[in-house]
UniProtKB/TrEMBL annotation:
It comes from the Archaea. Pfam families: NMT1_2. This is ABC-type nitrate/sulfonate/bicarbonate transport system, periplasmic component.
Length: 305
């Protein structure tokens, strides 16, 4: 039995909830110890402190960590296009205004909420605002729940975050999607499976974990109602309908490291440099080790299926 300490987020469409809520990993000889974190940057800090072996995380915090000397490698994908822009119901969306610049112009002199600095949502928001040259504040919150609270309390007019944030904001304050996930940053690596470099010596344990992860990605894509029941039962906080709604907003689940996933990730390197989050370039080989997922997932990626 291999023991793996796994850092994860509260994002209900990650396979962490399926694997924690079933006996799949134990049946494959893995004793998983799960640790919940507030954000991707917090998971990188846990890697830095050698608290975890594997993490579920968006790729921008990983890139930042690598430049700080944290020994990390992305060994699998999980989902793409997991950042959505939502706003209070009085604001107009992309379908009404026709272009992203016009949508963002509604928030000049105002604030957009996101999870912490360095999270994928924060980077997408700051990069877009910088490219447009608009005077819009990005207001960071340590937990996604605090972004929701700020929307409900009308402290912010808009936010960028995950599909579960959208579902919750719809329910609690009538917020709506104003820029869908595929239009903000196509193929963006909303999360991948990241491992500490020392773990890469344990190929058998990694392959067993990735086999279960791929099975869970397929399960979410092919049997979403059953997957939602597992997540709802495990969390005890959200219902099956909530999980299903989150699944449907951006249904692009797969464990592969597709060329598009990798290319989109490399685009974040330049964005992070431009924003001053990193001071040097990072190569593809510094970020990714594709050996393991190529064995587990040799067929074509399923992100677009």
């Amino acid at each position: 039995m291999s023991t793996l300490t796994i850092g994860h987020l509260s994002t209900v469409y990650h396979t962490s909830f399926i694997l924690e809520g079933t006996d799949w990993l134990r049946n494959m000889g893995i004793d998983a110890r799960w640790k919940l974190f507030a954000s991707g940057p917090d998971i990188v800090k846990a890697f830095e402190g050698e608290e975890i072996d594997i993490g579920y995380i968006g790729l921008p915090p990983v890139i930042i960590g690598i430049t700080r000397g944290v020994p990390l490698k992305c060994i699998a994908g999980g989902h793409v296009e997991g950042t959505v822009m939502l706003a209070q119901k009085e604001y107009k969306g992309l379908g009404e205004l026709g272009d992203i610049a016009a949508v963002l112009a509604q928030f000049k002199g105002k604030a957009i909420g996101t999870p912490p600095r360095g999270s994928i949502h924060d980077v997408i928001a700051r990069d877009l605002i910088a490219r447009l040259g608009y005077d819009i504040e990005v207001r960071n919150y340590p937990w996604a729940d605090f972004v929701l609270d700020a929307l409900v309390d009308r402290k912010i007019p808009a936010a960028m975050g995950t599909p579960p944030l959208v579902v919750a904001a719809r329910r609690f304050c009538g917020a709506r999607i104003i820029i869908p996930p595929g239009r903000l940053w196509p193929n963006n690596p909303s999360y991948g499976i990241v491992a500490r470099e020392e773990l890469l010596r344990e190929e058998d344990a990694i392959l067993r974990f990735l086999e279960a992860h791929e099975r869970a990605c397929n399960f979410i894509r092919e049997r979403p109602a059953e997957a939602a029941r597992i997540v709802a039962r495990l969390t005890g906080i959200v219902d099956e309908g909530f999980v299903l709604e989150a699944y449907r907003i951006s249904p692009k689940y797969c464990a592969a490291l597709s060329p598009e996933y990798i290319e989109s990730t490399m685009g974040f390197v330049e964005a992070l440099k431009g924003l001053g989050y990193i001071s040097r370039s990072v190569s593809k080989d510094e970020i990714f080790d594709t050996r393991f997922i190529e064995k587990t997932h040799p067929e074509r990626p399923h992100y677009g299926m």
